[in-house]
Design brief:
alpha+beta; Rossmann fold; Jelly Rolls; 25 strands; 24% helix; 20% strand; protease; membrane
Length: 585
């Protein structure tokens, strides 16, 4: 099986301005002085992050350190990730040509002996990838080191299956990591069923490890000029199979009694989902249905119709296999967009059920659809959800991607909601990614055989958020996964970037709580400053012979009663004051 990494290797060379200009530095937005004034003092004994002057100005994650306010957090709180172990899971670390990992250390973009910034503990590789890998794990490490340079980094390679991912998580747990971040999409993930990798993630979190993952790059947006403009069109799903009559050509090819899914949630009937492709495009998609992988009873098939050519292709899913099958639609023309019809076909027999069904288009980091029929979600149908696998598990912090140059949410960043029906005690719904990080960041080597030195995709965004989490963990070493997650989410900025999506759609589907903020996240786990009590004025002494305004003898019974009451009241005030101090310490 292949490892599906969630970067944008396939389009890097075509991105305008993708090559890194020497000395490039993206300026951070202006920050009011109030944030610095209100920040808590640096933690005792904490080491501030090394200045960027010890490495190149276009070093990996320099823009992220500024835009995520990690540099400001380092100055305000003295945090750089020291004392925190972060594990990275990807394809490989140091298997490619120059520059090598040793070159990166010498340049100050990775930790290790000879690092010019003084971060000399090398990345510990507990499992390396094979020859021909892309070293995307090293690119992730560069970004993580740029935001949290004091963090100790570990790396474990993985394959493309859930079982291989479980092993990688185990290796990092045994190595004693505090945080794990991955950028891997698994070939055997199912749309409606929890896999063993998600179970391993939950177990890691229960053991005290914060787990983050790249959300995925399977988002697609309807193109301007088409009905679905501004809407997510990467998938279509419904909670229950709705039968209708198949087109004649489809029924003829099936050769047995069949019906087709009705894609129209309204009063009408539509046995085809029309997808429109640009010229010279081949789009793969996966069809899933909601039956347990070990108890599949319903037999489904897929048909694809090209109306212009008058052709229909059909095949059945493999019997006895998992509840999924793969197909594709193609536009071989050079000049114009082309519409293709997709039909989901069900064999009518005694075992036929009405399970949930889903179609997920595999855009893999770039828009390959321009329009999708039935693009609006309804009470029963969801369009545009592409968060799948362990990324869609409640235990995982799935990370969306915001372009560091434009501060715009990437259209390819996978969205929610995601519904899991099997392998869980009860059905679970994850609204979307938990938070967003930054991509379009400089790295020291090209990925995937290209020439660009810009790292795009949620693979790049995830390590920037993991780095911020390391800063928070250093500030409060006792903070567990729940506290760290709460700090990241409660301080995130939902208005720090622009969104390409239609305004009628909830932002939480695409970017969760918003772009992480290092200053706010660190402040969230630190104790509030103890207020200084205001001085209590002391009244002037009265003559000993009489009480003021009464003329009573100062040694009489009334004075004794007043003195006792004052003593009791004073004691009460002291107790309350002590309690207030305890609560705010």
């Amino acid at each position: 099986m292949s490892v599906r990494l969630l970067s944008m290797r396939r389009v890097m060379a075509g991105v305008a301005g993708g090559a890194v200009v020497a000395g490039l530095l993206i300026a951070a937005p202006a920050v009011s002085s109030a944030s610095a004034v209100n920040a808590a003092p640096a933690a005792p004994g904490a080491a501030a992050a090394a200045p960027t002057s010890c490495r190149a100005a276009d070093a990996p994650a320099t823009p992220a350190a500024e835009l995520l306010r990690a540099s400001e957090a380092a100055a305000a709180f003295g945090v750089d990730g020291s004392g925190v172990r972060v594990g990275i899971i990807s394809d490989s670390f140091d298997t490619g040509p120059v520059p090598t990992a040793a070159d990166d250390v010498a340049a100050g973009v990775l930790p290790g002996p000879g690092n010019p910034c003084g971060y000399e503990k090398p990345v510990r590789v507990v499992a390396e990838g094979g020859a021909g890998s892309t070293d995307e794990g090293r690119a992730m490490a560069q970004l993580l080191h740029g935001v949290a340079p004091g963090a100790e980094l570990l790396f474990a390679s993985t394959g493309g299956s859930n079982d291989q991912m479980v092993e990688s998580i185990r290796l990092l747990r045994e190595a004693g990591v505090d945080i794990i971040v991955d950028d891997v999409g698994l070939d055997d993930d199912l749309f409606f069923e929890r896999g063993s990798a998600a179970v391993a993630v939950e177990e890691a979190v229960e053991a005290g490890i914060l787990y983050l993952a790249a959300a995925g790059n399977y988002g697609e947006v309807g193109v301007a000029g088409y009905p679905s403009e501004g809407f997510p069109i990467s998938s279509w799903s419904t909670l229950e199979y709705r039968p209708t009559e198949c087109p004649a050509a489809v029924a003829e090819q099936a050769g047995v009694p069949v019906d087709c899914l009705d894609f129209d949630a309204g009063a009408g009937a539509d046995p085809e989902l029309t997808a429109t492709l640009p010229p010279n495009t081949d789009v793969g998609f996966e069809f899933f249905w909601g039956e347990p992988s070990d108890a599949v009873t319903t037999q489904f098939g897929l048909a694809v119709t090209d109306p212009a050519a008058g052709e229909t292709g059909f095949r059945w899913a493999e019997e006895g296999g998992a509840p999924r099958m793969r197909a594709g639609v193609t536009n071989l023309g050079d000049d114009a967009a082309d519409a293709q019809g997709i039909s989901i076909v069900r064999r009518l027999d005694e075992a036929a059920g009405v399970p949930p069904v889903a179609i997920l288009f595999d855009g893999d980091s770039h828009n390959e659809l321009v329009d999708l029929e039935h693009f609006r979600s309804t009470e029963t149908d969801t369009v545009g959800s592409s968060l799948v696998g362990h990324q869609a598990d409640p235990s995982t912090i799935a990370v969306a991607a915001v372009d560091a140059g434009t501060l715009g949410l990437e259209t390819y960043s996978s969205a929610g909601p995601s519904v899991t029906l099997f392998g869980v005690p009860s059905p679970t719904v994850v609204p979307g990614p938990a938070v967003a990080g930054l991509d379009a960041l400089p790295i020291s080597f090209p990925l995937g055989g290209g020439s660009s030195l810009t790292f795009r995709g949620t693979s790049a965004a995830a390590p920037t958020v993991a780095a911020v989490a390391a800063l928070v963990k250093q500030a409060d070493p006792a903070a567990g996964p729940a506290e760290l997650r709460a700090a990241l989410e409660s301080s995130a900025r939902p208005d720090a970037f622009s969104s390409p999506w239609d305004a009628s759609l909830p932002a939480t589907r695409f970017s969760g709580a918003g772009l992480v903020d290092a200053v706010g996240a660190v402040a969230a786990v630190l104790p509030a400053p103890t207020p200084t009590p205001a001085p209590v004025p002391v009244p002037a002494a009265q003559p000993a012979a009489t009480l003021a305004a009464t003329g009573a003898d100062a040694s009489g019974p009334a004075v004794g009663l007043l003195s006792g009451l004052l003593a009791v009241t004073t004691g009460l005030v002291l107790v309350i004051a002590r309690r207030v101090r305890i609560r705010t310490a």
